[in-house]
Description:
Low-confidence stretches: 1-25
Number of strands: 22
Organism: Cobetia crustatorum
Protein name: EAL domain-containing protein
GO molecular function: cyclic-guanylate-specific phosphodiesterase activity
CATH architecture of the largest domain: Alpha-Beta Barrel
CATH superfamily of the largest domain: EAL domain
Number of helices: 20
Oligomer: single chain
Largest sheet: 8 strands, mixed, barrel
CATH topology of the largest domain: TIM Barrel
Number of domains: 3
InterPro entries: Cyclic-di-GMP_PDE-like (IPR050706), EAL_dom (IPR001633), EAL_sf (IPR035919), GAF (IPR003018), GAF-like_dom_sf (IPR029016), GGDEF_dom (IPR000160), Nucleotide_cyclase (IPR029787), Rev_trsase/Diguanyl_cyclase (IPR043128)
Mean pLDDT: 83
Radius of gyration: 37 Å
Pfam families: EAL, GAF, GGDEF
Amino acid sequence: MSLRPQPMADPISEASLAPGGRPGFRPAAPHPREQERICSLHSLQVLDSNHEKRYDDLTRLVADIFDVPICLVSLVDEDRQWFKAHCGLDARETGRDIAFCAHALHEERFFVVNDASKDERFYDNALVTGPPHVRFYAGAVLRDSSGLPLGTLCLIDHKPRQLSEAQLDRLERCAALVENELIQRDALLAERARATLQASIDPITGYSVRRRYLQKLSSWLDEYASDQTLQVILIKVQGSERWRKQKGSDFVDGVLQSLSTQLNENFDSNEMLKGRLNHDTLMVLLPQKQAVSGMRWSRFVDQPWLLHLSATVRPTLLICSASLVPGATTAHELIEILEEELHNASDWAPLQKDIQVADLTSSLQLRIQLNNRFAQALRDNELSVHIQPMFKCGTLALSGQEVLLRWKEQDRWVTPYQMLRIASHAGLTEELDIWVLRQACALLSQWQGSDEEFSTVQLPLSLNIAATRLLEVDYVDAMRRVLRLYRIKGQQLQLDISGTEDFMESPESLVAAMKVLISEGISFCIDRFGPENDSLRLLSLLPAKSVKLHPRWIAQLQTDPRQARLLKAWTAALHVLGLEAIAVGVEHARQQQVLEDLGFDQVQGFAFGQPVPPTDSYQEWLTNIKTAIKG
């Protein structure tokens, strides 16, 4: 039998009925400070959070104390009531329009309904007429630290009840425990926010640290989209590690602090997006209207505290600027491209008065275009391979040849380093590795077919590969398939592996992977062995035949008289380990005798042979190489 009262005798038009289907029924009105209340609730970051044991335990305890089947911690959002804890009820939320707790928001302490089936406000409420069949409801208001109501700790029973004043007081004390948890959560979140902000700001310059800068840069690029051109300024303290060792971290930090002050004074600080990318580099992004062209960068080192230093201990700055139109790349990709171009600029930017200045606009635009073009170029075979010879020191007899990747775009050769970075950005590193492998094996197959004596030549063709790739079963299987396809023996390939420093602590997996391929005849050379991975222990464990010392070590022979002694010690150590020492990046033929005296076994570089496209015949290629050496 329905508990709903019979309709009045006088007919009431349907248009006058309120949302409950009867005269006068309304959901609870919004709180007078509704927007503030909602903002406070959301700031707690508790809505839709996972179950937390302390809240669940508390509702079970309260349900036992008051002997009710249901106890809830209910938080009233804009359109729903959401249950942080719900003892005796499976639902996690209900609509706000039928929520008893929404009415409680208007009360000072409690909201109590002794028998909902006889209450004019609730007798036909869906929570009364259907599950959970509410009859009794008592809610103690939960408030934030400023007193705004957020929801209730409420009791629900399937039968009518009444609570005494003592019981209501007890319910209020229980609600205070929940309030304390919420307020503590609020305080914890505020403290975390403060700590996060402090961790996101560099205390020396006041600029955002890298992680925070990337987040803000993403928002900036989205905001500006392609509406206008932006300016980028990068400032790097060259040789910062040397300065840290010689003069301490405070010296380098002082230089960066001075640079940040100069940037703030020369540009509108409020319109700049300022970041400290790492220990030695600052980056700012600013609108086009803050012109960078014509800037007198020398003022950045015209600081009294720097000028009093002698020229030998005065830091050199690398300052690069560029213009860009947002929308062509993501923030993460943009930072990586800029850092790569900044690194490259240190080799070609002119030096004047302790400053190298470079405009990276054209390089940046080309790199962004290349990122978008690379996948198509790879699949359309627009890339090519060149071959560079290696020679024995002293006799200059040919000792090997290395496959180098080449790509010419817009009449400009893209460097191999740039291509590897672009491939990584595009997720095409694996595809590129296999493409180079196929090109090398196709060339070996062609040379075998054109020269009967080629198979007797014991000079493997060298390919560059990252050490981590050797641990990938797919790559090893692909290599075996390609060798079988072109009928190439493993002895005809050598892998020049880079990135071995990643295995400094645990080289076992790399050693095992190398031995698998060695069993198939493939040999190994450790590539770009230098300051970052100079571990004799690691070299003693890796089953390689030779080591290519980093080109930077060879270049330092021109500027550092101590470098010769260091290189001689390294070549001697390599020989003790049974490894040949290869000097790469040799740009002057007059270095040949010096390198031989230092103990190098092989040389490779523009001074003896530039990378050239392969010829159809191996003998023809050999003739060209010998002619070039004689010339």
